[in-house]
Amino acid sequence: MIAGANPVCIKRVTKFPLASELDRGVFGDQDSKITKDHVEKNMGGMTVQQAVEEGRLYVVDHHDWVMPYLKRINELPASEEKAEVSQRKVYAARTLLFLDGEDSSMLRPLAIELSSPHPEKEQLGAVSTVYTPPDSGDDGITAGRFSTWELAKVYASANDAAENNFVTHWLNTHASMEPIVIAANRQLSVLHPIHRLLKPHFRKTLHINAVARQIIVGSGDQRKDGSVFRGIDEVTYFPSKYNMEMSSKAYKAWNFTDLALPNDLIKRGLAKGDPKKPETVELAIKDYPYAVDGLDMWAAIKKWVADYCAIYYADDGAVARDSELQGWWSEVRNVGHGDLADAPWWPAMDCVADLVETCATVVWLSSAYHASISFGQYDYLGFVPNGPSITTRPVPGPDAGAEVTESDFLASVTPVTEALGFMSIASGPMGLKGTEVYLGQRPDTEQWTRERRAAEALAEFRARLEEVAGNIDRRNADPALKNRTGQVEVPYTLLKPTAQPGLVLRGIPNSITV
User: Which biological process terms from the Gene Ontology are attached to this UniProt entry (predicted)?
Assistant: First the structure.
């Protein structure tokens, strides 16, 4: 949740009990059923109210994104999908966590809530079960035997794997970047300084998106010969044919400015400070590898963009008078993202600050952000029981100490055929080794600019990236930073900008190519 495949969903709890934002007229009472009695026994004498006030209570809440589709998902496969789509049994999950330890840096799960629609009528609200850790204090694992707490963990992880794939990955990078790329190619001359700045971050994005629509995210596509082709994601992730609809629903809350890392951390309650000055941002969880490394990367990217833009835009008026730039941003907002054109958060693009923040966000999303939420899928989820993409059976009752055999456990998660499909798509970055262009690299270095100051700014950016890589290595070697490796001692390197040897792609590519 803070250093894995999807470290961008955790939020600080500011109000307890947890509440749903779903329409009660349609879905009934969807508020959380996690109570103080469930969690205070494992909070070392602290009350829930104290934990909320002191910033010690956190949640990963996928409930409202999953619940509206659960009835339909759990009725799969329908007759037309039999033998192609496996049985689903999915819950909408909330995971409540406590910031523990002497230095308040270790997150410990307190409760997992798994919810289903009411069996009689969705308007009657959710039917929820709350699971808590076994009283023994361990995770309940012995040789070949598990507790229902362990099973609840993987059902919650399945929610996380799906949101990672269809929201934080596909929506926030592939889909949302596409209109930016198209508008830039339509509105900006190839000689325009902003086109030259951003061109490396557009490389192959439209191509990979076209391929993805053909064979990955498509659902039930009828071919000319009458046959039906099911995309890889339709078969291997639990949302199945509803995956793009669920992604589109999430787009209603999409906010370009919030995807700038400092803004995102502050909005989720994980940081405080001035988002325009990343060096002043103070993290609520000091050992939050994604955020710590990410802020280093964000600062390096923004400094490079600011240095570059300062060469060509001496004042705010130069930005406002640039007709090509204004045409680009107008098309991004009013055509490419026309559904949200009237949202109040769009940068006005009438000053240098807006230009720098916008271009830094584009570079961040297409490079470091994409690497952090895409390239970890094989590392962290490739061993499917660690983060299944499908769940198939009801979870036993609320007794957290109930025994679950290994065969029951494995029969509850992604079936073998779908697991192999998931592993193959998650290992996609393997194919890029030796062909990728990394952040700070430009194959056209000799031709991309004749402006000495721009070339010097790029060289300074490369030097800063080397510093960031060194900082990450030092943090990973620090035994006091326990969240950087976890129990299995796999160091967090997804935001290390330099290319590294290994089975899968390492380093941060310039653009979204996989």
Answer: lipid oxidation
CA distance 287 to 110: 19
Residues 40 and 136 sit within 8 Å (Cβ to Cβ):
no
Burial class (CB in 10 A: 0-12, 13-18, 19+), 142: exposed
The residues, ordered by sequence, that sit 6+ positions from 215 with a Cβ below 8 Å of its Cβ are: 229, 231, 232
> Residue 225: pLDDT band by 50, 70, 90 thresholds?
confident
Q: Which letter does DSSP use for residue 409 in this model?
A: H
| Whether 349 contacts 372, CB under 8 Å | no
CB 278 within 8 A of CB 285: no
The residues near 166 (Cβ < 8 Å, ≥ 6 apart) are: 233, 237, 239, 243, 244, 246, 247, 250
pLDDT at residue 176, rounded to an integer:
97
Domains of the chain, each with CATH number or no CATH:
10-156+392-412 (3.10.450.60)
Mean pLDDT, residues 35-64 taken together? 96
Q: Which residue's structure tokens are 């262009």?
A: 437
Under a CB-based contact definition with an 8 Å cutoff, are residues 442 and 448 in contact? yes
Question: Are 111 and 96 within 8 A, CB to CB?
Answer: yes
Average pLDDT over residues 69-91: 90
Single-letter code of the amino acid located at 406: E
pLDDT digits (tens, 9 = 90+) for 325-354: 999 999 999 999 999 999 999 999 999 999
Amino acid identity for residue 139 in this structure: D
Average pLDDT, stretch 359-371? 98
> In the block, which residue shows the tokens 């790029």?
458
Measured distance between the N- and C-terminal CA atoms of the chain, rounded to whole angstroms: 23
Residue 380 CA to residue 389 CA, distance in Å, equals 12
Mean pLDDT, range 474-494, rounded to an integer: 90
Residue with tokens 């490796």: 485
Which of these, 211, 210, 229, lies nearest to 219 by C-alpha position?
229
pLDDT at residue 379 in the model: 85
Q: What are phi and psi of 152, to 5 degrees?
A: -60, -35
Q: Which residue has the tokens 């390096």?
A: 300
Strands annotated E in 124-256: 126-131, 145-147, 221-222, 228-229
Contact between 98 and 90 under an 8 Å Cβ cutoff? The reply is: no
Average pLDDT, the chain: 92
Q: Cβ-count burial of 445 within 10 angstroms (0-12 exposed, 13-18 middle, 19+ buried)?
A: exposed
Residue type, 378: Y
Residue 214's closest CA among 227, 235, 229?
229
Q: What is the mean pLDDT of residues 165-183?
A: 98
